[in-house]
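S.,

As promised, the heme C run. Input:
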Amino acid sequence: MQDPTRNNYWRASIKALRRVAAFAVAAFIISACGGDGGNQAAAGSDDTGQTAGQQAAEPTTGGFPSAPDGAIDQTLAAQGAEMFKSRGCVACHTFGGGRLVGPDLIGVTERRSFEWTYAMITNPDSMLANDKTARALLAEYYTPMTNQNVQRDEALALYEHIRDQNDGGDAVGD
Ligand code: HEC
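Predicted complex:
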């Protein structure tokens, strides 16, 4: 009757060993999952940022006005020229003088739609957070364009100035 006893002894030992092994494996898996969990959380927030990047940013001033076309409104453009200085745009942008803190605004009426430019002028924060093109510019220029709290009428005047500096953009001569 020795054999069954021995068998029981070995069985018990093997069971104990298995428990230790299982515990070790479980501990390893838990720690490994902890690490992965952290990485997944980080990757998750990146993904969220990217998803948001595909959404268009809205202007803060309540919807888009319709794009100006036809001849330049010189009175409005002159107001815009003044505002370009008083609102500090001139510290970061030139028209044909090359890159400053921000891009040279010559050609901007061809590079971007009216809506995009309007949103950038009135709501750069949201554009830089959400819009792919604006984010690419930020990656190139490093400095985020400051939100100057530009209101709807001011933005329209500024845009008319930008259009004027760009020889009327694509509207003149139509
Ligand atoms: C502190 C510097 C700064 C000020 C002030 C500033 N901008 Fe900008 N602007 C930038 C930078 C930098 C970019 C490129 C995107 C970025 O990095 O934020 C930009 C982008 C732009 C663009 C898009 C240019 C393109 O090539 O697509 C327009 C249009 C623009 N700004 C207009 C204005 C107007 C109008 C004002 C004044 C109300 C103004 N900005 C004030 C720095 C500035």
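The chain is about 65% helix and 0% strand. The domain at 74-165 is CATH 1.10.760.10 (Cytochrome Bc1 Complex; Chain D, domain 2).

- D.
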